[in-house]
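Students often ask why we bother encoding 3D structure as a string. The short answer is that it lets us treat folding as translation between two languages. Here is a chain of 130 residues written in the first language.
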Amino acid sequence: MKKIVVVIICVLLLNILLSCSNEPTGIRDEFYNAGLEAMNIADKFLDMEIIAYEVFIKGTDLINKLDAASGFSKFDNLSKKENLIMSLIFDLTLDSYFISESSTQEESYEKIFGTRNELAGLLGQETRDE
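And here it is in the second language, the structure alphabet:
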């Protein structure tokens, strides 16, 4: 009897450990990975490793890659979180375009910073301090 109880407890503990993941529920892998990639792009820009135009190009490539992988442009079967990830990637891409095309660079920089942290919160990742 003790062995059965021990086995049941071990199975329950294993189940609990396996369910503890940084990856939030309701987001398919391609959207989760795209969100992480967008965060990485934003981090490189914020660390001045790439310029705004590169953010725009990489963001556009990321959107096209998601479209090809999942057909998101139809907006069928996307969860609320997946729609939000797509919106944030669009925001990141457009804000980087406005940095290179306008005089509101500081405002766009702050938007990219905010978008990056919003993605981090949605994906269960650490936010960035200014």
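Translate back mentally: DSSP finds five helices and no strands in the chain. Keep this in mind for the problem set.
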